[in-house]
Amino acid sequence: MQEPIKEEIIIEEPVAEVIREENENAKRSKTHIGKAMWALFGIIAFVLGTIGAFLPVLPTTPFILLAAFCFARSSERLDTWFKSTKLYHKVLEGYVTKRQMTMYAKLSILIPVSILFGISMFFMWHIVAMRYVMGIIWAAHIIYFGFMVPTVEE
What we know:
It contains 7 helices and 2 strands; from the N terminus they run αααααβααβ. It is mainly alpha-helical. Helix 2 (about 60-75) runs antiparallel to helix 3 and helix 6 (about 105-125) runs antiparallel to helix 7.
């Protein structure tokens, strides 16, 4: 029986250094792209939340929550900017810091969500299981924000 041929690949030190640098650059590039995507999603969510502050059909708080999530992952600078906005202070600051919400913030969540759930349930009237699932989610939403999160004066 023949012995298998063993070959060693020897990479010279300058070549190995170039490979390491390329790997680091690729990692940094992926990190920059990921952070840019989080920033883009955060900006879109913030714009939708801002529009929702003026249009009663579009919910404000879920989009501002999403923006906070995205900005926290994008960059410290964007996160700091977002936390200094008037909309953040009005809608989220109390919940994030003290787990309390103003009545305005609670209603800005509960009313649009209830309307959207009602519309969805209307269009799903023939799918009984889905109506039950949506009803349970809606009730949990009402119970949590209505009764479990303390209300604070504005």
